[in-house]
Amino acid sequence: MTAAIEARGLTKRFGSTQALAGIDLTVEPGRVLGVLGPNGAGKTTAVRILATLLKPDAGTVRVAGFDVLSHPVEVRRRIGLTGQYASVDEDLRGVENLVMIGRLLGLSRSSAKARAAELLEEFELTDAGDRLAKTYSGGMRRRLDLAASLIGRPSVVFLDEPTTGLDPAKRDDVWEMIRTLVRQGTTVLLTTQYLEEADALANEITVIDHGLVIAHDTPDGLKRQVGGQTLEVRPADDRDLDRVTALLASVGTRSPEFPSPSLVSVPVAGADALTATVARLHAENIAVTELSLRLPSLDEVFYSLTGHTPAAPASPSTPGLVTEGAAS
To answer: Which Gene3D superfamilies does UniProt cross-reference here (predicted)?
Structure first.
């Protein structure tokens, strides 16, 4: 199977700053690769190179089967790109934004209008299609921006922090749109600093820091790499909190912590700790409302790998791109 995206030894320097120091990325067709990393790790630089907006200093890159340096036009015909901030023309109506992109991509006026109507319906914007984009909410602008990136029916889509600034409900809407794209066979490279987003959407995750790939695996694989599991117990009666804390201290590999009121958490080695805890809770007649054994969260993995806690994006991301097969 030919990879939809394949980069080998990708390097890029800006003056004295080494943005990329030889990264490898591979995404198989119809899959989602989540690219994680702290601010300044090199994520957006990598996306710009893959999308033909920047030339690498060294390395090879193929997207949709074409080399991005020797066949950039062919690559652009097959990709879509959406950056961190919606890049729509606020002085045009929603439908006019999409028709304009279609015309720039070489569609006839009738084909552009038909494709715009199709996407407005798919992204639940039909009723707002005749309104100026400046009247749209942030979530509506994001949906319009995503629709614009799909005008050319790209086989590969780059989403550079696509849900930045959206409330949780609108973020869920974007997640479902991404899942729909993948079900239709689209390949997605997703950069994000919302780790739950990568956990929910990505088949595999690559972690970049200081321009280097420092980890690559499935979400569960990364969690297992960090090692251990976490046992959490919430007693039904707060008066039992001290007894629960003492119990977990005896089975854990570190001192118990309290991630929320009345919830006691401790790392453990092996599933036997769960069995032992259940038996002791029963023996001591301690009722609980919550009892779980889980792998580390991606937040914990991220901190373990990079030494950073996840942070909200601090600067604008990839600018809009209009190409033969992609827009936005």
So the answer is: P-loop containing nucleotide triphosphate hydrolases (3.40.50.300)
- The alpha-helical segments, DSSP class H, found in 27-184 are 43-50, 72-76, 94-104, 109-122, 138-149, 168-183
Residue 78: name the closest of 89, 67, 94 by CA: 67
pTM, full prediction: 0.76
The token duo for 289 is 């409302």
Sign of CA dihedral 41, 43, 44, 47: positive
184 domain-assigned: yes
Residue 317 main-chain phi, psi, to 5 deg: -105, -155
67-104 pLDDT, tens digit each: 999 999 999 989 998 876 667 889 999 999 999 999 98
Residue 82 sits in the same domain as residue 165? yes
Distances (CA, A) of 176 to 270, 299, 326: 35, 22, 21
**3 state SS of 131:** coil
